[in-house]
Design a protein that fits this description.
Blueprint: H1 2-16, E1 19-26, E2 42-50, H2 58-69, H3 72-75, E3 77-85
Parallel strand pairs: 2-3
Antiparallel strand pairs: 1-2
């Protein structure tokens, strides 16, 4: 299931952003026993580099990433740690 979720996250971001690089890490194993992990959803970290973030403040960048996740935030993802950068910032 973990590899499938990573693939879904990757596909969602690739479909809406012009990416210079993307790293998706499943950190669910670090949260075993955590109350939020009991429902089976995972904890993930993404490092997204895209010039689609040019001129956007951090909150707007994160909103773009969350929008790309859509319903995955309620079905598959419990927590998402986001690093959203432009190519010049990476």
């Amino acid at each position: 299931m973990s590899a499938e979720r990573v693939a879904m996250i990757r596909q969602r971001l690739e479909s809406v952003l012009s990416l210079d690089s993307l790293e998706v890490i499943d950190e669910s194993h670090l949260h075993i026993g955590h109350a939020g992990a009991r429902d089976g959803r995972g904890h993930f970290r993404v490092r997204v580099v895209s010039n689609d973030f040019l001129g956007l403040p951090r909150l707007a960048r994160h909103r773009k990433v969350y929008a790309a996740m859509g319903e995955l935030m309620t079905t598959d993802i419990h927590a998402l740690n986001i690093e959203a950068l432009t190519a010049d910032e990476s």
